[in-house]
From TrEMBL:
Domain Semialdehyde dehydrogenase NAD-binding: 3-118
Descriptive protein name: Aspartate-semialdehyde dehydrogenase
Residues annotated as binding substrate: 154, 233
Catalytic activity: L-aspartate 4-semialdehyde + phosphate + NADP(+) = 4-phospho-L-aspartate + NADPH + H(+)
Alphabetically ordered keywords of this record: Amino-acid biosynthesis, Diaminopimelate biosynthesis, Lysine biosynthesis, Methionine biosynthesis, NADP, Oxidoreductase, Threonine biosynthesis
Source organism per UniProt: Faecousia intestinalis
Length: 332
């Protein structure tokens, strides 16, 4: 049995982690929840037991085996050294350490062995990257992927618990003729699309868009992979969707790709256009599989394939993936 902490326990991902730890029967002898001073002292129920929220500190981390990071990257950076000094392994969902050379970046279905390379910190990847790479890695095994063009359709809950509240309030304001006042997003999201997630990072690409290339390269061990990505916030409550066009070293047929996806861990093939069956965010929410469909030839390149995938970004794209990494850690 293990002593486990959650840093950022009161946020959307932290709350989901509590639920998934219980659901997966993670072998826990003690759960400690850490959040800011605003929440410290409050008692929440976990698995039928009361757990008091504490402020994070090296002293409060002492005795834990694993701390799951569900906080933003500035908080992760602040407390990771204390977690490690206290003797626990920090399995972090934030972007703080993902690209550090001595920190493995892991999707358990893709690069489980990398967990062994850790020095106290293991990172879980970005939500859209996890969903996309879980889907395309199976095809990379048929023929190495050279490049990828991706467009994401990211749900409002990816921006935290305030995202769905803002969408609902805007829909209500518009219905009743009241003014819309965006706070979480930079523009009205109701009945709109916002083609910016993150700040500008490189040549007009946002930080969220560059994660797809940089994290994808590290996880799939494809250092020369080239990715062009456009990330778009859409008025969907939960589950991110991604349109992907892949170019391989050699041609991969639709039939081969369908077989590979159907057999791939963490994926479900949902691909029957004639019967209107394809992945949709309403169907992928509150579960852990990445649904993949619309697999078809890329009409611009003989070595290309196009597909569509959806997954629950709070579960597989964040909380579940982080907990799966912790499970690997105790297994290995
Ligand atoms: C989102 N949380 O905004 C993600 C960003 N990685 O959807």
């Amino acid at each position: 049995m293990y002593k486990v902490g959650i840093l950022g326990a009161t946020g959307a991902v932290g709350r989901e982690m509590m639920k998934i730890l219980a659901e997966r029967q993670f072998p826990i002898s003690e759960l400690r929840l850490f959040a800011s001073s605003r929440s410290a002292g409050k008692v929440v129920e976990w698995n039928g037991r009361p757990v008091m929220i504490q402020e994070p500190s090296e002293e409060n981390f002492r005795g834990l085996d694993i701390v799951l990071g569900a906080a933003e990257s500035d908080i992760a950076r602040l407390y990771a050294p204390e977690v490690v000094r206290a003797g626990a392994v920090f399995v972090d969902n934030s972007s703080a350490y993902r690209m550090d050379d001595d920190v493995p970046l892991v999707i358990p279905e893709v690069n489980p062995e990398d967990v062994k390379l850790h020095h106290g910190i293991i990172a879980s990847a970005n939500c859209s990257t996890i969903i996309t790479v879980t889907a395309v890695n199976a095809l990379n095994a048929i023929s190495p992927i050279r490049s990828m063009v991706a467009s994401t359709y990211q749900a409002v809950s990816g921006a935290g618990a305030g995202g769905p509240v803002e969408l609902a309030e805007e829909v209500e304001a518009l219905r009743t003729g009241k003014p819309v006042q965006p706070k979480v997003f930079s523009h009205q999201i109701a009945y709109n699309l916002i083609p910016q997630i993150g700040g500008e990072q490189y040549e007009g690409y946002t930080s969220e868009e560059m994660k797809m290339q940089n994290e994808g390269r590290k996880i799939m061990h494809l250092p020369d992979l080239r990715v062009t990505c456009t990330c778009v916030r859409v008025p969907v409550v939960r589950s991110h969707s991604i349109s992907v066009t892949l170019r391989f070293d050699k041609p991969v047929s639709v039939r081969e790709a369908r077989h590979a996806i159907a057999a791939a861990p963490g994926c479900r093939l949902v691909d029957d256009l004639g019967n209107h069956e394809y992945p949709m965010p309403l169907d992928t929410s509150d579960q852990d599989l990445v649904y993949v469909g619309r697999i078809r030839p890329d009409l611009t390149d003989d070595n290309g394939l196009t597909l569509w995938c959806c997954g629950d970004q709070i579960r597989k794209g964040a909380a579940t993936n982080t907990i799966q990494v912790a499970e690997l850690l105790i297994e290995k």
